[in-house]
Amino acid sequence: MAHWYAACRGSDLRAGRPHAFTLLGRPLVAFRGADGQPAVLEDRCAHRHAPLSSGRVCAGELQCPYHGWRYGTHGQVTHVPALGAAPPGVAGVTALQVCEQDGLVWCWPGADAPIGTPRRIATHDQPGFTRFIMKTRFRGSVEACLENFLDCPHATFVHKGWFRSPTAQPVRAVVTTLADGAVAEYFDEPRKRSVIWALFAPRGGAMRHTDRFIAPHTSCVDYEFPSGLAYNITSTCSPVEGDAVEVFTVMSFKFGWLGPLVRLAFEPLSRWIIWQDVGMLDRVAANRARHAALGALPRVQSTAADLLGPHIAAWRAALTRGDAPPAAGQITEATLTL
Ligand code: FES
Ligand SMILES: [Fe+2]
C-alpha cells in the first residue's frame, strides 16, 4: 500500500531549477509549473533517457538538457525544438500525484489513486509559533530513525549536556496505543543542566511531554511549559534507496515575538543535536552491516525502557504484510531512570 511521502521542502523549488530526489529507489524530479504549483516526474527524458533534473525550468515547463524536449506538469511532451512543435503520439513520462502542505511538497508514489491528503503538521496553523524545516539524510531503517526520534534514554548519552543530562531520577511513562500509532506521556520529568532546558524552561515548573508515533513514518515530540512556551518536533521519513532515509523535521516553537530571535540560537543547536543522532545511527548501520556479513544477525533485545520502538516495528510489519494494525486502547506503564 502506498502512502504520502515528503519529497522536498517547498523552498527547495527555486525558480528555474529542477530538484532531483530519490524515493523508494525511484529517481524523481520536482519543479514548479507556470501556476506555481509543484509537480513531480520520473527523472528520465522519454527521448534518450537523459536526467531531466540536470535541465532547467522554462516558463513552468521542464526542459531536457540533451535535445531540449519540454515537459508539462503532467509529464506530457509539450515541445520538441528540432521539430518546432510537439509531435502527436509521443509518450511522455510518468507524473506522480503531488500536494504542497505545511511547507513540504508531498508525493504519492503508488500507481493507484491517493488516499486522502498528507497528515497536517499539528502546530502549523497555530499563532505564536516560529518554524523552520530541516532536511537530514540518515543511514538506517525508517524504524531505526523513528525510534531514535522518540527515545528518551539515548538522549542522556548521545545528547548529554545539550538536550538532556542524566539525573538518575525516576520518570513515570504511560504508553497508549492509538488508531494511528502510539503515544508515550511522561510525568515528573527532570530537566536540568542542558542547553535546551536553559533556553525553554529557565525557571522549571511542571511541563507536559509526549512522544508520538504516527503510522507509517512520522514522529511527533511535544513539550508544553507552564510559562506558555512550547515546542514541537515533527519528523517524517522518506526512504531513499538502500539504507538511506531522508528525514524532514519541522521544528515549531512558541516563543511569541522573540521567536525569530530565539531561532538564531535554536536552529544551529537543533542541527547540532540531529547530527549527533545521524552519527550514532550511522555507526549502528555500519556495525550491523559488518556483523551481518559474518552471518545472520541475532534479534535486537528490547526492555520495558524501549517504550515506542516495539510499537513502531509491530505497526510497520503489519502494514508490510497487509495485516490489520495493532489494536488501539492498550495502556502500559513503565518507570524510566533518566
Ligand atoms: S534525451 Fe532528452 S531531449 Fe533528447
Ligand atoms: Fe537524539
From TrEMBL:
Keywords: 2Fe-2S, Dioxygenase, Iron, Iron-sulfur, Metal-binding, Oxidoreductase. It comes from the Bacteria. GO terms for molecular function: 2 iron, 2 sulfur cluster binding; dioxygenase activity; metal ion binding. InterPro entries: Cholesterol_7-desaturase, Rieske_2Fe-2S, Rieske_2Fe-2S_sf, VanA_C_cat. Residues 5-107 form the Rieske domain. This is Aromatic ring-hydroxylating dioxygenase subunit alpha. It comes from Ottowia testudinis.
